[in-house]
Design a protein that fits this description.
Elements lengths: L4 H36 L2 H32 L8
Helix pairs in contact: 1-2
Length: 82
């Protein structure tokens, strides 16, 4: 059974939503760890958080690319009538 264009769009949109929620959760945990490191004056934890930030950035850029790709592939094609 072929997947309709609308069903594929809905699936991709749901994936984008899930990925956005996951990214938000990652950022929330990083902020909590930052506060903990600051309160405890834990330089090692702070360095670990800085190192882990690359994973958050990678996910953010991937999410942004996926969103742009979804928008670009779902917008209607322009047609010129003569």
């Amino acid at each position: 059974m072929a997947v309709t264009a609308r069903a594929a769009f809905d699936r991709q949109l749901h994936t984008l939503l899930d990925d956005t929620l996951l990214l938000g959760s990652m950022v929330e945990k990083a902020i909590e760890r930052c506060i903990d490191a600051l309160v405890r004056l834990d330089a090692d934890l702070a360095r670990q958080i800085i190192g882990d930030d690359a994973r958050i950035n990678d996910r953010r850029y991937r999410l942004e690319e996926d969103a742009v790709r979804l928008i670009a592939t779902q917008q209607p094609m322009a047609a010129i009538s003569g």
